[in-house]
Design brief:
Blueprint lengths: L1 H9 L1 H23 L3 E3 L1 H11 L2 E4 L3 H6 L6 E2 L2 H5 L13 E4 L6 H10 L5 E4 L2 H7 L24 H7 L4
Parallel strand pairs: 1-5, 2-3, 2-4, 4-5
Length: 168
């Protein structure tokens, strides 16, 4: 015990850093256990999509969404979700798979959804970047998502949209 006290006394910076990392790790583990949403890898997300047909929500910015997204995903940027967008409210009983570009924003948005009363919220670990890295398909189609609020919307064909310069 005397050697430990001497070591700590001689290495205050190292001991302080160790204590800070230990406290941060404990805090992270406790918060992870208390959160009400679940983090999924790509394989688990595919299984959820195939078995439970969740509402898929992309919380990326508009330009990232236009570059590619999971087929059927509803685009709902964080600003709209934070502003109290109510399009999702009628889907509280349905599973929700939420993702962003790289997995940094979606956990915060998942927490917001659970606070709004959504019971089954899943976050794609690593976001769309991991999805693509795992060689899963993405789409660039602009139109109402098959599982999004409002269902199948009217869509102009790509040639017509290109000619008019407008989106459907």
């Amino acid at each position: 015990m005397d050697q430990l006290i001497e070591f700590v006394g001689n290495n205050l910076l190292l001991s302080g850093l160790f204590a800070a990392v230990a406290v941060a790790w404990i805090f992270y583990e406790i918060s992870r256990k208390l959160r009400k949403w679940h983090e999924l890898g790509t394989l688990e997300a595919v299984q959820i999509i195939n078995r439970q047909e969740p509402l898929i929500v992309d919380v990326s910015n508009s330009s990232d969404y236009a570059k590619g997204h999971i087929a059927g995903a509803l685009h709902l940027p964080p600003s709209q979700l934070e502003a109290g967008d109510q399009r999702l409210d009628k889907y509280r009983d349905r599973p929700v798979l939420i993702y962003c570009k790289n997995g940094q924003v979606s956990p915060q948005m998942a927490t917001r959804l659970t606070r709004k009363g959504f019971g089954q919220v899943y976050v794609l670990n690593g976001g769309l970047a991991q999805w693509i890295s795992d060689q899963q398909p993405v789409t660039r189609h602009k139109g109402a998502a098959r599982n999004a609020p409002g269902g199948k919307g009217k869509r102009k064909n790509r040639r017509q949209a290109d000619k008019t310069g407008t989106d459907a």
